[in-house]
Design brief:
The complex is a heterodimer. By secondary structure, chain A is mainly alpha-helical. Helix content of chain A is 43%, strand content 10%. Chain A has 3 helices and 3 strands; from the N terminus they run αααβββ. Chain A has a 3-stranded antiparallel β-sheet with strand order 1-2-3, with no helix packed on it. Chain B is built from 4 helices and 4 strands. The longest helix of chain B is centred in the first third of the chain and has 40 residues, at 2-41. In chain B, 23% of the residues are buried. The chains are: A mainly alpha, B alpha+beta. At the A-B interface, helix 2, helix 3 and strand 2 of A face helix 1, helix 2, helix 4 and strand 3 of B.
Chain lengths: 159, 155
């Protein structure tokens, strides 16, 4: 049970510590200023760090456009030139072959043979007479003269 | 301050999207100009090269030309079949034409030489000739079949 002397003893203890004068001040300038400056510095440093990060992030915006943009096809000039040369030569050969005149042929209705007029050189006409022919089957892509027809003057060169 | 940072981040994201769009547009313009230059520089070569590849529109003219060549060489030429083989995975289809030939020996040789040198991307797939006594304008000669395969531009 607390008695009066206990309460007095506590009061004396408090007053003795403060020399009997109670601390009536509410503000402590140095303390308040220190606390305020610390908070301000912390906000300043934090904001600077965030701002720097944002700046760096948006300063170097790298665009990888190689996949999104359409690609230009490569033009192989050497291959095209080679093809043009080859087919140009082929065109020339074709034109030359077209100009080759076909021999005029007359059929002899009285006999079994036929007479062929072949125009060679400048107006010279050579007459060749062919004998009766017989049917000979030949393999594909190659024409061979039949051995049975020894008297056949027509010979075919396998080209 | 946090609010300001948030607004800055939003604007920054928008800035990034616009920057990417501008860069892509610039790249596209650059590639377009490159392609346009390439097309202009190679126009003559490409048009010459395209003449050597047959198209469906020119097929009839080609057949007419072959028939005219046969007439000039006094060879009876008949077109037996005309088929288009679609080649998947390849740039051209194959036009396969089968002809039947009938004429004199030298006439047949001339027309074969002419067909072999046709100014088209083509190959003679098969050729067979039979010597026989046939009553034709060319007299005694050969009859046979020829299979020609030409590259055809895909439609």
């Amino acid at each position: 049970m607390i008695e009066k002397k206990d309460i007095l003893g506590m009061a004396l203890h408090v007053f003795k510590r403060s020399r009997g004068i109670p601390d009536k001040r509410l503000l402590h300038p140095q303390r308040e200023w220190a606390i305020g400056l610390c908070v301000f510095l912390m906000l300043l440093i934090g904001g600077s760090v965030v701002s720097a990060q944002l700046f760096v992030a948006y300063q170097n915006i790298q665009v990888d456009g190689s996949d999104s943009v359409a690609k230009v096809p490569k033009y192989n000039k050497a291959t095209v030139a080679e093809a043009l040369e080859k087919y140009g030569a082929r065109q020339a050969s074709f034109d030359l072959a077209k100009q080759t005149k076909a021999p005029e042929v007359r059929t002899d209705t009285q006999g079994q043979g036929t007479t062929t007029d072949t125009v060679v050189g400048e107006g010279d006409v050579v007459q060749t007479e062919t004998a009766v022919t017989e049917e000979t089957s030949v393999p594909a892509e190659e024409v061979e003269e039949s051995e049975e027809r020894e008297d056949d003057p027509v010979s075919l060169d396998a080209s | 301050m946090g609010y300001f940072a948030y607004r800055i981040m939003l604007s920054g994201a928008e800035l990034r999207e616009q920057t990417i769009a501008i860069e892509n547009n610039n790249l596209l313009q650059k590639k377009y100009s490159e392609l346009e230059t390439l097309l202009t520089d190679t126009h003559q070569e490409r048009s010459t090269l395209s003449q050597y590849i047959l198209t469906e529109e020119r097929t009839i003219n080609f057949l007419t030309e072959v028939e005219q060549i046969a007439q000039q060489q006094n060879v009876q030429l008949t077109t037996d079949s005309l088929t288009v083989n679609e080649e998947k995975g390849k740039e051209f289809n194959a036009l396969v034409i089968k002809f039947t030939l009938l004429g004199g020996e030298s006439n047949i040789k001339n027309i074969l030489r002419t067909i072999e040198t046709l100014p088209y991307h083509s190959t003679v797939e098969e050729l067979s000739l039979i010597r026989k006594n046939v009553s034709t304008e060319g007299g005694t000669g050969f009859t046979g079949s020829l299979t020609l395969s030409l590259s055809l531009i895909k439609p």
